[in-house]
Amino acid sequence: MAHNNTVFSQLLKLVSRHEFESLAKQHHSGRSFRKASRWSQFVTLMMAQLSGRSSLRDIIENMTAQKHRLYHLGSTMLSRSNLSRMNNDKPYQLYESLFGRLLTRCQSVVPGHNFRFKNPLYSLDATTIDLCLDMFPWADFRTTKGAVKIHVGLNHSGYLPEFVTVTEGKKHDVTIGRMLQFPKGSIVAIDKGYNDYAWYKELTNKEIFFVTRLKTNAKYRIVARRSVLKHKGLTSDQTIEFTGVQTAKKCPIELRRIGYRDPESGKHYVFLTNNFSLAAKTIADIYKSRWQVELFFKWIKQNLKIKSFVGTTKNAVLTQIWIAMCAYLLVAFLKFQSGLHKSLQQILRILHLNLFEKRDLMALLWNDPGEHLSPHTNQMALL
């Protein structure tokens, strides 16, 4: 039987140490520790994400139990105080930049989305992570409550979080939405929380399509009507223009209004879009697929450590969140590159149970009792 390093060691090889150290030099501040390094911090916190550790003591005790294997990870043993100080003081921007590098490599192997059209498809949304204001005074949200907000533009090709921004809880969703630079020809599915008529006009000028729900109090007139297939749940397909004084000034263009009744729930939806070429039912399906971004938030909250934090400073919280995002990309890359039909949750559970086992990673994921090297093994490189 061939010798294998630990599963964790094989996973970390997906991240080039040379590239990592280059980023570490770019995002360095303060004095360096004599023994500790940013790589050791990354290895320690990545282990915490993949194995579900929830406190500094828990993390350090688990690493201590695996101390004899740290050499093969290129890591040193961190004390609890060293890890805490690094989380508090060393810039989180290192892991934000690392996320961008990993994302670029993941994009090269992702499958397409499930629609027939070729346009890139995104779902845009945000989720709030509640914090105790007494422990996180910098995260002011409400009178007695703190929070941070994660804004995500989820690309439906592989369901990758292509746009990620972390802000204070008070930041309005549409403020971040306006800052995102979607590719020309993209279709962006958004809910009514992003309602901004001036932004709709701006997206149209940039040749970016949007699909959202029309506000019930919107004032408009019907310019044209098109026939619909009622057996598919469609109730209307119209060209409209806004008549409200301020709305017409902000968005003086014709848009498309589509009515749809969900056959399962019986609920009636009214969609608004600037796309006149796709079928009305496709527009309804695009908005329905926006639920994928909600599932993404649910997945990272249930499977990664972004709801409870091992530090209370802003830098410590953002460090933990960005390393969690990197962990998501590593797991996603394993799924895409290997051609596995397992879900991300199934892959993460396998890693959780076998993180320090000395087994071939790809054979483990493929449930191969022979432990032979997979033909994909030599292709496993991210950076």
Q: Structural class from helices and strands? A: alpha+beta
Strand-residue fraction? Answer: 15-25%
Radius of gyration: 24 Å
Low-confidence runs: 370-379
Helix % is 25-40%
- Look at the structure and give the mean pLDDT: 91
List keywords for this structure.
elongated; 383 residues; 18% strand; alpha+beta
What does this structure look like?
Strands 1, 2, 3, 4, 5, 6, 7, 8, 9 and 10 form a ten-stranded mixed beta sheet that branches. The protein is α+β, with helices and mostly antiparallel strands and 383 residues long. Among the domains are: 164 residues, no CATH class; 99 residues, no CATH class. Helix 3 packs across helix 13 and helix 7 packs parallel to helix 13. The longest helix is centred in the last third of the chain and has 25 residues. The chain starts with 6 loop residues before the first helix and ends in an 18-residue tail after the last helix. It is elongated and about 70 Å long. About 3% of the residues have low confidence.
Quick structural gist:
The protein is α+β, with helices and mostly antiparallel strands.
Secondary-structure map with pairings?
Blueprint (H helix, E strand, L loop, with lengths): L6 H6 L4 H10 L11 H14 L4 H10 L4 H4 L6 H10 L3 H15 L13 E11 L8 E3 L2 E11 L4 E9 L4 H5 L9 E3 L7 H9 L3 E5 L6 E6 L8 E9 L2 H6 L4 E7 L6 E6 L6 H10 L1 H13 L10 H25 L5 H11 L6 H5 L18
Parallel strand pairs: 1-5, 5-6
Antiparallel strand pairs: 1-3, 2-3, 3-4, 6-10, 7-8, 8-9, 9-10
